[in-house]
# Entry
Amino acid sequence: MSFIRGLKCRECGREYEIAPIYVCEFCFGPLEVVYDYQGIKGVLTREVIQSRPNNLWRYRELLPVEGEPTNALNTGFTPLVKADNLAKHLGLKELYIKDDTVAHPTLSFKDRVVAVALARAREFGFDTVACASTGNLAHAVSAHGAKEGFKRFIFIPASLEKSKIVASLVYEPNLIAVDGNYDDVNRLCSEIANKYRWAFVNINIRPFYAEGSKSQGFEIIEQLGWKAPDAVVVPCASGSLLTKIWKSFKEMKEVGLIDEVHTKVFAAQATGCSPIVAAIKQGIDVIKPVKPDTIAKSLAIGNPADGFYAIHVIRETGGYGEDASDQEIIDAMKLLARTEGIFAETAGGVTLASAIKLINSGKIDKNGTTVLCITGNGLKTQEALSGHTPEPHYIKPNINSFEEVLAKIKKV
Amino acid sequence: MAVKVKIPVPLQRITQGKEEVEAEAGTVISLVNDLNQKYPGLAERISENGKIRRFVNVYINEEDIRFLKSEDTSVKDGDVVSIVPAIAGGI
# Structure
């Protein structure tokens, strides 16, 4: 049984039937899925959730699918790691890492949104899925689409790093490398989406796709023992994940799974692309687009589609935002690896580096429970650390050579 | 020669299904108002009180007008203007 009521414009409130549409015909505002929360209350209980497999569909009543999901059966329910070493280093009482570096199957939180987008694309009857991406989304659509037997069109900027291209190509999608930057690719794709009847996960399937992000928030609450954290730090590109995590917390309260939510929501961006954080720091509502210049490529969106809503969530919850330089991002990636054994992509460095600033400035309470959303795996962006890691100890294949080096290591 | 304006699907109902229309040169906002004469209802959908709506991206020859002079950016004959709804991407 489905509890989806329809789509609603976030700006003017006009309602639409469920369909692969994404903007309001009257004001161009984004459309959002509306649920029957009263109906869900009492049906989706803690016991029901806990009786289901450890994947994102355990919260299916709060996700925009009609039937019983049959795809992405290993996606979601990533570890919530209690980060005691890092907490000690930062002087925090209780710190957790929501670790989507091990999301199945492509090691980023995009596996969640694509799982939902493809389930919905199937329900709409599409045979082709598509996306514009610089990396993680391309990998997720390529992989999930292969497993589900969709034709796939993946649009990327031609200048993308070779390693990222290979991580899509291995699944043999139609990879279209566009001579232009990400914004050019996006603009082209919105024209293509107009012309072809394909499920563009981040265009005409966007209202459904974006809802998949909520699964990360649902899991945080369940894994904390059915309570919301005091602070959550979320990396922002478009601002979508941040707004959806907040929505997921509010929904869990709405349907009676938890009693209260007092969480402060914090945004993390790279200094070289921080239109959302800049607006928060300036106390204004208007997002000024920027031309991105940062090593955190997965966050390099200069014109954030959900930035306005992200700012409102941050204000509403009493949170704040911080930004991190390239060097701070690298240092934080290394700190996370050294203390918690988690190798995050550059976006993870952004999250931790920004969190450190928020802790030091007192914006995040050291005595509260803090969760950092780590959204992708560092193996995908290894070139970012080139020249920033220690060197190996080179030796000859004999014990003397080894012991010479060992003596040096012991001295340090 | 006039300004070419690319129309997104959600607006094509107003432009009688046309994907591309022509408008007079001027500023972005005067162009929108000019189009509204031919296609009533277009201006109110993408602008409000003389400002382009928050969720509408306007490009002149592939450059976002917010990097130019926003609504006051001048548009000349031969320019190509694209109206694109904001789309998702990234985190």
